[in-house]
Amino acid sequence: MCSKVIGRKGVGMAAERSGIFEGNDPIAIAQRWLSEAEKTEPEDPNAIALATVDADGLPNVRMVLLKEIEADAFVFYTNFEGKKGQELAAHPRAAFVMHWKSLRRQVRVRGPVERVEDAQADAYYASRSLQSRLGAWASDQSRPLESRASLMAKVAKVTATKGTSPARPPFWGGFRIRPVEIELWADGPFRLHDRFRFVRGTDSQGGWTAARLNP
């Protein structure tokens, strides 16, 4: 669990972090901001731009949907055999940014990545629409596709063979990012933005140290 205790630097500026920045746990603040964005953002307030790296160290960035904020981690789901799944298996570290135009705020996260437990992935998969569950079986994510017609033919074949209650594909599941660094950003007048960077401590308590950054 993420400690509520933060380092001495963070305590020194606790009073400055009031209003939307109030609190010593940046994950809890991110959850609060997402809850606000769900009321104001017109589409997919949980969309994140997720960055991974390939075998040559070249970054890849794409939009995915964040499905859960845990006490000490952020969770999303994907095809393990797709580009991002392969890159995360080879280099289990990632970063993402979540930006809301309606709130004029963003959250940046970096940290190591691990797979979500099977039971948790099964539960989320079962909560998806039937069409999405069948689509997970039909798509060879990131690999060349002859045509959309061939994809839809594969969906029809999967529908006929898997029925109305398909099990989770073994090649599909969740990833959990355990952040070691989180930056909270809010737009300010004349580009004088508010930025706070939280770094997770390495001691047994695993608390957070906070620092204000220049815009």
Automatic annotation (TrEMBL):
FMN binds at residues 62-67, 77-78, 83-84, 106, 141-142, 185, 195. It comes from the Bacteria. The keyword Oxidoreductase applies. It is an enzyme of class 1 (oxidoreductase). Residues 172-215 form the Pyridoxine 5'-phosphate oxidase dimerisation C-terminal domain. Coiled coil: none annotated. Keywords: Flavoprotein, FMN, Oxidoreductase, Pyridoxine biosynthesis. Its cofactor is FMN. Residues 36-161 form the Pyridoxamine 5'-phosphate oxidase N-terminal domain. One of its GO terms (molecular function) is FMN binding. PANTHER family: PYRIDOXINE-5'-PHOSPHATE OXIDASE, PYRIDOXINE-5-PHOSPHATE OXIDASE. Belongs to the pyridoxamine 5'-phosphate oxidase family. NCBIfam families: pdxH, PRK05679.1. Homodimer. This is Pyridoxine/pyridoxamine 5'-phosphate oxidase. It comes from Jannaschia pohangensis.
